[in-house]
Amino acid sequence: MELTIGQKAPEFIAKDQNGDEIKLSDFKGKKVVLYFYPKDNTPGCTAQSCNLRDNYEALQAKGYEVIGVSTDGEKSHQKFIAKHELPFRLIADEDKAVHELYGTWQLKKMYGREYMGTVRTTFIIDEEGNIEDIIGKVKTKEHTAQILK
User: Fold this and answer.
1) List of domains in the chain
2) Rounded Cα gap, residues 145 and 132, in angstroms
3) Residue 111's beta-bridge partner residues?
4) Which candidate in 22, 45, 92, 138 is catalytic?
5) What is the pLDDT of residues 67-93, one digit of tens each?
6) 49: Cβ–Cβ under 8 A, 6 or more apart, which residues?
7) Which of 31, 62, 111, 141 is deepest in the core (most CB within 10 A)?
8) Is 45 a catalytic residue?
9) What is the percentage of the chain residues whose pLDDT exceeds 70?
């Protein structure tokens, strides 16, 4: 099922980089930038995460909390956060449960081969837990501008 703007964002319970439980309902009353990215420490994902880091105060000033999601594990996330001084939490979605809820684990094609992978997508969720926007064509170096447009 494809998610659409205006519908309730799927509730999830997952583990962050420290193994702490994180769930969407923890953020009721705040806007959430839930961004799905393919892999820690790859060029595009690093550019995207660092753009969000560099503009984190501006996002927070507008009431947003930022949460990244990839299929990397906790240790990988810890290294990624430390290396790039990321100020937000990253979900270690190794079982792809959160990806499945949001429809971001899909068949992809590259260089003529097909494989399952993360489709880089950002969901903007409002204070009531509804999807306010879905950014499918993410500009990794200008992502905050896409969010705050």
Assistant:
1) 32-148 (3.40.30.10)
2) 16
3) none
4) 45
5) 999 999 999 999 999 999 999 999 999
6) 37, 68, 80, 84, 86
7) 31
8) yes
9) 99
